[in-house]
Amino acid sequence: MRRVNPVKKFYVLQHIDCEPLGIWEEELKRWYARYEYIKVWEGAPLPEPENTLAAIVLGGPMSVNDTENFPFVTKEIEYLRKLVDAKVHVLGVCLGAQLLAAALGAEISNGSKAEIGYSTITLTHEGTEDRLMLGFPMEFPVFQWHEQGFELPRGAKRLAGTEDYPNQAFRYENVWGLQFHLEVTPEMAENFSQAYADMLEQVPNLTPRKLKEQAAVNGHMVTLYGRQVIRRFWDSVTTGD
Known about the structure:
Layout: E1 9-14, H1 23-30, E2 35-39, E3 52-57, H2 72-85, E4 89-93, H3 95-103, E5 108-123, H4 125-129, E6 139-150, E7 157-161, E8 169-172, E9 175-178, H5 186-195, H6 197-200, H7 208-239
Parallel strand pairs: 1-2, 1-3, 3-4, 4-9
Antiparallel strand pairs: 5-6, 5-7, 7-8, 8-9
């Protein structure tokens, strides 16, 4: 394991209070990974790329394309582009994945319908060989909450998809983007249903109660895969692979 530069910091870019690190926070603490939250939506300044050891970019309700109402999006994309150029390890989730895709020149657009709740994704051949999901079954449960998706960035490997959103995960060098959530706890899922009630109403036959039932069935497995993904990401950071 390589020695981590003590001057550099591990940053977590957050866009709304109800979308924290979730189970990843527990796992990172177990590995003594010291990180710092940056509340981007509150106007917190972004660090210099040379001071960034690694970054996790979390989800949020805003659109990457709505820079008028969310001017921080433009600055964040510029920051992520610099991280990519500097070969910094970055893991983006949902909105975070879309921001990374935009930083790599891909377009973000509305899908045919919203994907909300626990569902199954399918790995590609590249996904089964990627270090974050190596050994995972071809299909496994995740948590979804989005109505936009991203094009596959040029030069990136497509790792997973669904019927409605074929680009669910990608890797580009030291950067991973996951459209789905693997960090959520059942409590976070419940918070989503309250904070984003208007989106939940778009999905036929899906209610907060139904979401709880889904969590009871799939929550444990999502946690299992989520723990493995964050461990492998942190291992990649510390080994430099």
